[in-house]
Design brief:
261 residues, alpha/beta, Rossmann fold, 2 domains, seven-stranded parallel β-sheet, 45% helix
């Protein structure tokens, strides 16, 4: 099984924490050159020191803010000018929790902008070099809400569903060029976002942090919350030559929690 990413360059968004950071680490372990994308330069500098480079890889980073899509477009196009990119990991922090009925139009617009629109900007920036190389892997880290909407995450459910259908459409359009487009759907994963969701729910319900956390664990057949690297290995596999015939799928990494096929 060919898992070698030597000579390949991966752009990883939201790469200074959680699943994004874990994905960058796994891709570097497989030999890829990594371009980190995030808005905090200090965190980017810190993260780049953690990336494996024994195979002689050259890693770099781009400071960009996904709340400013057209500034992102200008920044990323300027940085990638003349560079070959083979792998793109689209990963952006989820919208705040809350019911869809209570969300303002502005909340939906902001979420669509930072997820769907920014993903589109990133894809348009890298696809020309992928076509030229005859090799491309676009992997979107979304949510199991694509399969079954999650209660209390109205804006997120709506936005994630849009991204999933956008990605499926791209898989039709780009497959003939050796480019695959897939979605990884993390379940209950111990990230900063999950910690925030647990704390908010505990505050609203009057339950303790551990009570809310244990309720989440009870819904997972695996009997535990995953760590970011467990999602990242699925991301890394989809980026390899071995996954070349996997295209247009939603892959849950959730310990069996999602109640659908």
């Amino acid at each position: 099984m060919n898992l070698d990413l030597s000579g390949k360059t991966a752009v990883v968004c939201g790469s200074t924490q959680g699943i994004g950071k874990a994905s960058a680490i796994e891709l570097a372990l497989l030999g890829a050159n990594i371009i980190l994308v995030a808005r905090n330069e200090e965190s980017l500098r810190s993260t780049i020191k953690e990336l494996h480079a024994v195979a002689g890889q050259k890693h770099g980073y781009v400071v960009a803010d996904f709340s400013l899509p057209y500034q992102l477009k200008e920044t990323i196009e300027r940085f990638l000018n003349g560079k070959n990119v083979h792998i793109l990991i689209n990963n952006t922090g989820g919208p705040p929790a809350g019911q869809a009925i209570d969300a303002s139009p502005e909340e939906f617009i902001k979420a669509f902008s930072s997820h769907l629109i920014c993903n589109q900007i990133m894809v348009q920036a890298v696809v020309p070099s992928m076509k030229e190389a005859g090799y491309g892997r676009i992997i979107n880290i979304i949510s199991t809400s694509v399969k079954v909407p999650l209660r209390g995450l109205g804006v997120s459910n709506t936005t994630r569903g849009a991204v999933a259908n956008w990605a499926k459409t791209l898989s039709f359009e780009l497959g003939a060029y050796g480019i695959t487009v897939n979605n990884v759907l993390p379940g209950t994963t111990m990230t900063g976002r999950l910690d925030s969701i647990i704390r908010n729910k505990a505050e609203k319900t009057g339950k303790s942090y551990e009570e809310v956390k244990n309720e989440m664990i009870a819904e997972v057949p695996a009997g535990r919350i995953s760590e970011p690297h467990e999602v990242a290995v699925a991301v890394a596999f989809l980026a390899t030559p071995a996954a070349g015939y996997i295209n247009g799928v939603n892959m849950p990494v959730d310990g069996g929690r999602t109640g659908s096929l």
